[in-house]
Amino acid sequence: xxxxxxxxxxxxxxxxxxxxxxxxxxxxxxxxxxxxxxxxxxxxxxxxxxxxxxxxxxxxxxxxxxxxxxxxxxxxxxxxxxxxxxxxxxxxxxxxxxxxxxxxxxxxxxxxxxxxxxxxxxxxxxxxxxxxxxxxxxxxxxxxxxxxxxxxxxxxxxxxxxxxxxxxxxxxxxxxxxxxxxxxxxxxxxxxxxxxxxxxxxxxxxxxxxxxxxxxxxxxxxxxxxxxxxxxxxxxxxxxxxxxxxxxxxxxxxxxxxxxxxxxxxxxxxxxxxxxxxxxxxxxxxxxxxxxxxxxxxxxxxxxxxxxxxxxxxxxxxxxxxxxxxxxxxxxxxxxxxxxxxxxxxxxxxxxxxxxxxxxxxxxxxxxxxx
Length: 371
Prior knowledge:
Layout: H1 6-22, H2 27-35, H3 54-65, H4 69-85, H5 90-97, E1 105-108, E2 115-119, E3 122-132, E4 140-148, E5 158-166, E6 171-173, E7 187-196, E8 200-202, H6 221-250, H7 262-288, H8 293-319, H9 331-342, H10 350-369
Helix pairs in contact: 1-2, 3-4, 3-6, 4-6, 6-7, 6-8, 6-9, 7-8, 8-9, 8-10
C-alpha cells in the first residue's frame, strides 16, 4: 500500500506553503499519510497491521520526500512509532489498536525528559517533552522519562522508561519555528498524567524478541533507528538534484547552449546514488541479515555516511544554483533547508557512529582472541 502515493504527493504539492506558514501538517495531508498505510506499516499483524519491511518504508518515504521532506518525516515517524508501540504489554497494544491499526503515534523518547514516579498500579508522569513530530494530528504519544527501578524506590538507579499517553491528555505548546522541516510540527508537549502499567515499557525491552514476532519486531532498536531519519534526507537530496538539473537545462547561454555544470552534476549525482545504495543495504540488513553487534554498528556507520553524502551534494547544488535559489519559495532552497535541519538529529551524527563502529570491531576482535 505504501507504493500508491499519488494522492498524498498531490496534496503535499498543493499544501507546501501552508506547511511553512503554520509549521505543521495540514489535516488533509495527515489523513492522506494514514490512508497510504504509514501508520499501520509496522503494527503487529494480530491488530491487522502490516508488520512491514524496512525496505518498503525507505522506498516510500524517500519518494514522498522528493516532494515534501516534512510530510515524509512525519510519515516515517508514524510508522516507526507504531513499531515501538508494539513492545507494550498486550493489554496496552489492545488499548491503542482496538478500533483498528491506523493510529497516528507521535513520540519524544530520546533523551528522557520529565519525571516518572511509581504509584499503585502505574506511574505518575509529569513534565515537558520537546520535538514531538506530527503531534498535532496524533492520537497517542510515546514519552520517555528516567524512572527508579522497582527494587530501588530511593531512585539511586534508574531506567529509561517509555510511556504511552493519549495525546488529548497533553497540552501542545507550539514552539516549532525552525529554518527547515517546518511542516513537521515537532512541537513541545507538557502534562501531568497517571499511566497504568500496561501502557509502559523500557528502552531495554526494544531488544526483546517477541514470540512469533515478524522480523520488524525481532531486530534491536539500534539496528534500524537512524534509517527512519535518513530516508527523508535521501528523498530530499534526490528532489534537490532533479530541481537543480531542470533549472540548469533551462538556463540558456549567449551562444544558444545551456549552462550545465558537468563537474557539479557528476559529483552530486554520484554522491546521492551512493547514499541510496548504502541506505538500501541498511534496510535489507534490517529485513534479512543475522544480527550481530558489528552489523548494528555498520548500519549506524552507513546511515551517517549516506546522510553526509547527501548533505555535501546538496550544499554544492545550492551553492551553484544562482540567485534564483535565494528566493524564499525556491524548491531547491526548500530541500537544502530541510536537509540542513535533518542533519542536526543526534541519530545521524557521524562522529558517534564512527566511535561505535570502531568499538564494535575491537570488541569482536577481543572476543575472537579469547576463544
